[in-house]
Specification:
By secondary structure, this protein is α+β, with helices and mostly antiparallel strands. It has six helices and eight strands. Helix 3 crosses helix 6. The longest helix has about 70 residues.
Length: about 290
């Protein structure tokens, strides 16, 4: 049997199954298998799987307590004397070692094959369960990625709706029958800035400027309309992008007729009235 050390690992399948069941009793065959396992990763892995399956067989069913009556019957049978005829038959059977009652040589082999088949089925079930777990993990990852993508798409939809609403407001102002245009020019620290303001008393104001310089911390640009009489009216603080551009749309209602549009530099958050300096101003045409 030592010559089997040089055989392919497929030829050791039966011996591996027997070893997993602790049924490999032949010393020579066990020695050959040990020598093969020392150099074959595939067979060692197969042995581990079959041993795991064998250990799991006893856990596959729930334990059941025997009926109380069964214990009484077993104890009663053990205490009763054996009938004489039965003892004679047993004695005769013992004197005939080769009688028809001798167990068939093939019976242990059949039992071993049945157990080996159970081990193989259990091992296959374990492999299937592992593959299924991997598939579930992959599907979970795909579902998580899809959820992230759906959230990103939802954010894009919200942004597009906001842009659409902003565009509608701009078009309403520019297309209003009473729209008036003011060309704003920069001065002071914003001497290079240019701007346009479209003002409709019925629809609101659209403002756009470029080349506005970045302000120091604690300062904001604030937009104003200048009426024919009375104090300037604030249209709020305007945001300026990193490239110096700014866009602002404001719905108006019940405001006095305006003659000009202006930009001032104010403390962060704006002021209730201009504190100067004015850095952009433009008159509204008729």
């Amino acid at each position: 049997m030592t010559g089997r050390q040089h055989l392919p690992h497929e030829d050791f399948a039966d011996a591996i199954a027997a070893l997993a069941l602790d049924a490999l009793d032949a010393p020579a065959e066990r020695a050959a298998l040990d020598a093969h396992l020392a150099q074959c990763d595939a067979c060692r892995t197969e042995l581990d799987l079959q041993r795991a399956a064998v250990n799991a067989i006893g856990l596959g069913v729930e334990p059941v307590a025997p009926p109380a009556a069964l214990r009484a019957r077993v104890l009663s049978a053990a205490a009763a004397p054996a009938p004489t005829a039965a003892l004679d038959r047993r004695a005769g059977a013992a004197a005939q070692p080769h009688s028809e009652h001798t167990p068939r040589a093939g019976a242990p082999i059949f039992a071993w094959l049945t157990a080996a088949a159970a081990v193989i089925v259990a091992a296959g079930s374990l492999v299937y369960a592992l593959n299924l777990q991997r598939e579930i993990t992959a599907l979970t990852a795909m579902a998580s990625a899809a959820a992230v993508r759906a959230e990103a798409l939802n954010a894009e939809v919200v942004a597009l709706r906001q842009q659409s609403s902003e565009l509608v407001r701009v078009l309403n102002v520019i297309g209003a029958p009473d729209v008036r245009l003011a060309a704003l020019s920069g001065q002071g620290v914003a001497a290079g800035a240019l701007g346009r303001a479209y003002w409709s008393r019925s629809q609101g104001l659209v403002f756009r400027a470029v080349q506005l310089p970045t302000l120091a911390t604690g300062r904001d640009y604030q937009l104003w309309i200048i009426p024919a009489s009375g104090a300037p009216v604030s249209l709020g603080v305007i945001a300026v992008q990193a490239d110096g551009s700014s866009s602002h749309t404001t719905p108006l209602a019940n405001l006095p007729a305006a003659t000009a549009v202006a930009i001032t530099i104010e403390p962060t958050g704006g002021s209730p009235s201009p504190t100067m300096p004015i850095v952009m101003v433009g008159s509204l045409g008729t």
